[in-house]
Amino acid sequence: MTAFGQPEKPKLEISELTRDFYIYTTYGDPGNGSLYPANGMYLVTSEGVVLFDSPWDKTQFQPLLDTIQARHHQKVIMCIATHFHDDRTAGLEYYRQKGIKTYTTKQTDELSKVKNQPRAEYLIQKDTVFNIGQYHFETFYPGKGHAPDNIVIWFEKEKVLYGGCFIKSTETNSPGNLSDANIEDWIKSIKKVQAKCQNPKFVIPGHQDWSSKKSLQHTLAILKKYLKENPKDK
Asked: What three-state secondary structure class fits 114?
C-alpha cells in the first residue's frame, strides 16, 4: 500500500488490444526517482509469440515470458526493439540467452554499442516485412525523431501502428525526453508515418495511455507547439 492508502500498481500489466495483439506495461525510473509506465506489445501467432520492445523493469523479463506461456500456451520466438534507449532494449541480452531471436536496426545497434546498451543478435538493414505465422508486419524508419534510430511497426491489414517512443500519448502535452531528439526532423518524420500508415485503428505510444487513435496528430501538435516556444531547440 502507498502512504495514501491506495494499492500499488502491479509491476506487469497486460491488456488485450484486439485479436492476438496485447499491450504490456512495466515501470522504470526515468531519472527523477519516480516510476513511469512504458508500453510494449506482443503478438500471438501460429508460430509463436513476437515481442515488440522489452520490459523496462528488469525484474519483469522472465515474468512476461511466464505469463505469455501460461496465458497463450506459446513461447516467445522473437523480439524487436524500436530504438536504443533502455526502456526498449533492456531485455535483449536476457532474451537472446533464452534462445529468443532478438532484432534491432543496424543504426540502433551502432548506438547501443556506443552507449553500452544491450544489443540484438540480428540486424535489420532496411525497412523489412516480416511474415510470422498468419501475420505480416513492416518495420519502418521514418527518419530522426525522439531518437535518431526510432522505427515504428505497421500492421497494414489489421491497421495497428506500434509507435514506441516516437509517438506521444494523448495523456501528455510534453515532448518528453529530448536528450537524443531532433524536433524539426521529428515533425517531418511524423508526417511520413501519417502518409504511410493511413487510417490506423490502433496507435500505440511508448508511454502512458494508448486508447486514443489520435496520438499521431497529438504528437505533431506537441512538437509544433514546442518548436514555436523554443525556436533554438531544433
From this structure: helix
